[in-house]
Amino acid sequence: MDLFKILYPIEWVVAWIMVQFHALFQLLGLNPASGTAWALSIVGLVVVIRVMLIPLFVRQIRASRGMQLLAPEMQAIQKKYKGKSDPASREAMSRETMDLYKKHNTNPLASCLPILAQSPIFFALFRVLNSLQNIASGQQAPIGVMTKDLASQAERATLFGAPLSSTFVKAADAVSGPVGHVVSVAGNVRFVTILLIVAMSVTTFTTQRQLTMKNMPASALQGPMAQQQKMLLYILPLVFAFSGVNFPIGVLIYWTTTNIWSMGQQFYTIRRMPAPGSEAERLLKERQARKGKVQDQVAAGPELPAIEEQPRGQRAQPKRKDRQRKRTTSDGAASDADVPDSSSDPEDDEPEPPAPTKPKK
Questions:
Q1: 8, 137, 214, 216: most buried, per Cβ within 10 A?
Q2: Which of 295, 111, 153 is CA-nearest to residue 163?
Q3: Buried b vs exposed e over 150-171: b needs ≥16 C-beta within 10 Å?
Q4: pTM (2 decimals)?
Q5: Annotated domain spans of the chain
Q6: Which three-class secondary structure state does DSSP give residue 311?
Q7: With the CA atoms of 163, 168, 174 and 176 taken in that order, what torsion angle do they form, in degrees rounded to the nearest 10?
Q8: What DSSP character marks residue 180?
Q9: What are the phi and psi torsion angles at 162 (to 5°)?
């Protein structure tokens, strides 16, 4: 009972956010009694919560990266105290491990912060959806702005024919339709539940796989810690599959949506800020190299023919044509050699100035 009192303020906030998004979608033209409007209200709740958790997500990324970087040193400590179970050795191992965490400024619990922060919200949403029937019937007081009329509307809302407040286990009791014309929707509830559980398991598996296979250095893929992460890679989807049959469809929508958000957020982070020595870092460097090569080609532009420039300085002097020397024949008449070339420039006939001489000392 004390736990329910602690969760009540969170339930009030969850109900308020859902009602505000429901009013927004009604303003946009959606049917307020439709399951689409209420399902999108749950999606809006996810968006608000995940935006608020971005600082914790950044701390989670830094903590995960720090744990990956200290993996070789952690393996060395474990190898050093392997087979030693005496109290002194265990105390020394714990002390060296804590010093290693301080050295890298990381903490294994920091990687769980987003999950731990979402747990109260998750259970609060579970409580709100489970209370819709009691609020609609008047057996329970409204939760904040979730009034009796709104609770009745949300409790009857269906997604693909399945009420949002129904569960796989209690599918046989699920009904839909106006009062006096209720119909059993057990098959729809089971179908939608299985569909959401499969989507939730696939997104969880994909998120963990891209974290372990693409954003971890080769040294971090070995050792006991890596083996535990590989086990979680396959165990978590099974846990969700077995536990999901007990949750309302609205909670499964929240869970699947937050998994999709986590997958996209992590994909963006790994692509832009990969861990040192990981496969993602190698791919990032290849993309940067290709991008830099293209930019260099664009900056260089097309090759143009080389233009030979004339050296600047004194104007080139015209070359003087050699004069033919006079020759006389035996009869004293001038020969053709005595006649200057008519094609020569008169300026060419001018004698060249004497070269300057250096003064004698």
A1: 216
A2: 153
A3: bbbbbbbbbbeebbbbbbbeeb
A4: 0.69
A5: 2-70+106-285
A6: coil
A7: 30
A8: T
A9: -115, 125
Which residue type sits at 253?
I
145: tokens are 């702005």
Place of tokens 């301080």: 102
Residue type, 353: P
Amino acid symbol at 120:
P
Sequence length of the chain is 361
The residue behind tokens 């004497």 is 354
List, as one string, the DSSP characters of 229-287: HHHHHHHHHHHHHHHGGGS-HHHHHHHHHHHHHHHHHHHHHHHHSPPTTBHHHHHHHHH
Three-state SS sequence of 38-104:
HHHHHHHHHHHHHHHCHHHHHHHHHHHHHHHHCHHHHHHHHHHCCCCCCHHHHHHHHHHHHHHHHHH
**Hey, what are 124's tokens?**
């609060």
| Chain center to CA of 318 | 74
